[in-house]
Type-4 uracil-DNA glycosylase (Devosia ginsengisoli), 269 residues
Amino acid sequence: MAQDRPLNHDEMVAVLDWYRAAGVDIAVGEEPVDRFAQRAPQRMTPSPAAPTRQQAAERPAETPVLGGDPSEARSLAASAQSLDELQTILGAYDGCGLKLRATQLVFADGNPEAKIMLIGEAPGAEEDRQGKPFVGKSGQLLDRMLGAIGLDRTKVYIANTVPWRPPGNRTPTPEEMALCLPFLHRQVELVAPKVVMTLGGPAMQTIFSTTTGIIKMRGKWSSVAIGNHTAEAIPTLHPAYLLRNPAAKQQAWRDMLSLKLKVEALGLA
Ligand code: URA
């Protein structure tokens, strides 16, 4: 039964923690607003004519971006001449709304000289706290997976498709990913890895420009252009998925062995 008394301090902190974990971390007003009671605004102008088939076909195929300006992101990213510069530019960039709710930028971890790059999806709560990718539970599993094939963070470079934690650990939206993509492309160009491993579906779909599912694509090598850099790339399952579905570790293990063979074949180990 609901208690009709004010919350005490500990209860209020618990409610705020719960809100934060659910991604509700900005107060937008003092009072709740009943949106159902608000009338839909009257349209003052006639709706624009539907595009002709030819106009629709001529539209750029780019994902529409709400809020930020992708051409600004592209020119900012292109201006970075080093990873340090890119990190500074990204830290000052306000075009992607994810930044508003994140504690800090999660740029990269590992060795910027490495020839092997891993790309995950987005920082989680622990990454957001520490400012480094893959330092939570899935990061610990990733370290064990790397260790099993003789790699560690001194031999790989790790980044994410978006460098800020999405509220409540939701998957970044296509618009958020599209805004961050020029920065990831530049990061890959500057690291210039010979081999890239993507972790999980969203990172795979971003890097391989595909809508195919991870289960179908994982474990298959292809030569992929990432920005102006081309690398041999393989998708595998995300460590967070493996924590939830331990039976799938068998498939991930095959992908790790395949990575090991590729690394040896290219003389990178
Ligand atoms: N999951 C990711 O995809 N990236 C991280 O940095 C942490 C968890």
In short: The chain has one domain: 70-265. The pocket of uracil is lined by residues 120-124, 127, 133-134, 136, 138-139, 160, 199, 240 (CB under 6 Å). Confidence is low (pLDDT under 50) at residues 40-48, 56-64. The radius of gyration is 21 Å.
